[in-house]
Amino acid sequence: MIQNQFIRFKLSLSYDQFFQVYQGIAKNVSVIAEDGRRVAFPAGRIQSFLTRQGINGYFEMELTPENKFVSIKKIEC
What we know:
Elements: E1 5-13, H1 15-22, E2 28-32, E3 38-42, E4 55-63, E5 69-75
Antiparallel strand pairs: 1-4, 2-3, 4-5
């Protein structure tokens, strides 16, 4: 049985950078995971982590074996 995969990455976006999503300028976020893979995903997936300082931290994304999004959470380094 193939298990879900977990991708960890660090993200640092200012509030103004994330605001481009609302303006329709940006739709996706692209990051380099800790294992070196480039991962792109809809910006709305991280909207719940937005503060006045932006979005900063270390995150873990869970995907199915078919690369379908399951969840994303903020984790401690």
